[in-house]
Amino acid sequence: xxxxxxxxxxxxxxxxxxxxxxxLFVVISVSAQRLTRSEAGAQLHxxxxxxxxxxxxxxxxxSLLALIPGQKIGPASVVVAIVGLAFVIxxxxxxxxxxxxxxxxxxxATFLAGLVAVFVIQLVSGEQIIAHPHNPGPVSTIAFLVxxxxxxxxxxxxxxxxxxxxxxxxxxTALARKQHDADDQQDEQREA
Length: 192
Prior knowledge:
0% strand; 7 helices
């Protein structure tokens, strides 16, 4: 049973999820050329687009079914978590089939591992709700997972459009490369 205190959260998150799915379709249509190529990088973009859609759809379905009176959020969470896990397995198989399991996709593999964690926690929470429908704890956990799905979907959407990556690891690596290049130039100048 969904506590009354979470009703407005699920109402808002259902609205937000619907809007974000609509925007994702716009992003996909703008990036259609990159997504339809047959090269290896295109498959990675397709997986990113599917991951964003999976995250947003998970948030949408859970949020909407939480609004229906009765005991809907537990079974919905279980079913959507199983579908999400199937997506992750299919994505990993796609990467293996395409021989794309390399270090440069570690971020994508980490994201998929994060989705696995979200879906497993959601599955367990859904089962707890089914077993103990009046315990509000698992419903709160699912509400937090909806937020994580939003964040993950937004992150993936940002990558799909090819937006700049400005993260701590990226910036430290760029700074280290710049310093290494400067040191190499100084060494070359001394030798000359």
